[in-house]
Amino acid sequence: GAGVSQTPSNKVTEKGKYVELRCDPISGHTALYWYRQSLGQGPEFLIYFQGTGAADDSGLPNDRFFAVRPEGSVSTLKIQRTERGDSAVYLCASSLGGGTGAGELFFGEGSRLTVL
Amino acid sequence: AQSVSQHNHHVILSEAASLELGCNYSYGGTVNLFWYVQYPGQHLQLLLKYFSGDPLVKGIKGFEAEFIKSKFSFNLRKPSVQWSDTAEYFCAVNARSSYKLIFGSGTRLLVRP
Question: In angstroms, how far apart are the furthest CA atoms of chain A?
Fold first, then answer.
């Protein structure tokens, strides 16, 4: 597609529920990133994929968070047993690859998660 | 660990005023530097970037930024702002050849017509 697509754009759930957020990156971009943006803060790194593998998941806050990218394109961020503190905008970005191009990220519009 | 500081959280200007947004980073090695912008209701997009060479870089819409290595700074400037520049601006840094982009907390700019 023309840009990074994220669904849903808004998700309201109850504490303790399971949530999936989807990201469809720009065609041909091998690198995919998930960031989380809380109110009044800049985006915070969660996880980075190069192809199908998670090259760095050091930003995931705990084991309730998990992400997959089984075919090297679409990625799903999964949050188990959601807590109110998980409320944030979850941003997906893609880029052509590593090296000097690594920082030229193309962002989606984000999925706003609200946990009641 | 890398970090990015943006000193001004909110800036209000009148049209035609000059703009300078501060950005400082902490990292001992070679870095790439970026400014991203988020217009109301839109996604984050790249405004300009510095990888190497001329420390004064020009971006879209008349913005420029100057990398001052000795001050670990990458301030964003525009000589004359427009109402359409109302947005949130994020400074970001990554270590050279790294994939992990570290963002500042952002500066909300409001330009009054």
Answer: 41
Work out whether strand A10-13 and strand A111-115 pair parallel, antiparallel, or are unpaired: parallel
DSSP string, A59-114: T--STTEEEE-TTSS-EEEEE-S--GGG-EEEEEEEES-SGGGTT--EE---EEEE
Give the nearest partner residue to A102 out of B4, B46, B99, using CB atoms. B99
Which of A33, A99, A108 minimises the CB distance to B97?
A99
B102 and B94 Cβ atoms separated by less than 8 Å = yes
CA atoms within 13 A on the CB side of B31: 27
Which pLDDT tens digit goes with each residue over B2-20? 899 998 899 999 999 999 9
Mean pLDDT of B38-60: 93
Mean pLDDT of A38-57: 91
Q: Best interface-test mutation with A: which of B36, B43, B47, B97 has the largest number of A CBs within 10 A? A: B43
What percentage of chain A carries pLDDT values higher than 70? Answer: 94
Pairing of strands B73-78, B19-21: antiparallel
d(CA A76, CA B6): 31
